[in-house]
Prior knowledge:
Order of helices and strands: HHHHHHHH
GO cellular component, one term: plasma membrane
Membrane topology: Multi-pass membrane protein
Transmembrane segments: 17-34, 46-69, 75-94, 186-209
Mean pLDDT: 79
Strand content: under 5%
Distance between the termini: 56 Å
Number of strands: 0
Number of helices: 8
Shape: rod-shaped
Subcellular location: Membrane
Low-confidence stretches: 99-103
Region (Disordered): 218-246
Largest sheet: none
Amino acid sequence: MIGCYNTIKYTGLLSNLLYMLLAIGVMFAAGLSLQMAEPNTPEHTYFVESIVLGATICVIVIFGCYGLVCNLLSVNIIFTCFILIVLGVEYLQLHNYHPHMRYSGVLQQLDLSQAWHNLDIHPQRMQQYEQQQQCCGYNNVRDYKRLQLPIPQSCYQQPGNAKLFTRGCEATLIHRQNSIQYRDKLFMWCIIGLEIFILVQTIVVSVMLHKLRQRQRHARQQVPPGVRREPRANHVGSRAHLLEDA
């Protein structure tokens, strides 16, 4: 049982180290995104919360590693409660942020539609979007031909090259949004899966540590009284009768 306990213990230390690295990665990514987000927006608040949550996770992981190294049952139990709290906070954070992600996608779609409909007035806006997203037209390059407009230079892959971007800007926008959502979900489920693994591992370690303590206590009780090391009496109390005789 001790060998199994040590295996789970060292596995827990490695998983906690990986958990801390992921938390540091979340803080780093949120810090970079925070510089691009506008203040007083849901995105800005989300990134600030991510930085605070990542720092909190690092402190919790250090606390949990201390409990594993020192074999402290009470610390492992508290660490389990902390992991449950972190899971709850992450759920609330993601649940509150989802509507803003959909709202942001609608705004980007609206900006693209306005840029395309105002092509005659402000063509630079659409051309700038095409250069950034490497697309051409709203649906594809045929949109310019249907409107009998010249194909702008922003639709070409390279200056002086005859190759055009075949994908429309709407499809590019949808593909980018789907890629971002897929990446975020994948990263989120990796973190949640690791947290659940650490939670189960911590519970198992706590149960095994409790059983080991019970075995040690039971083994001490099985030792005969003459062999068992009794706690030493106080130095002053052991000579109390000498003082009374004097």
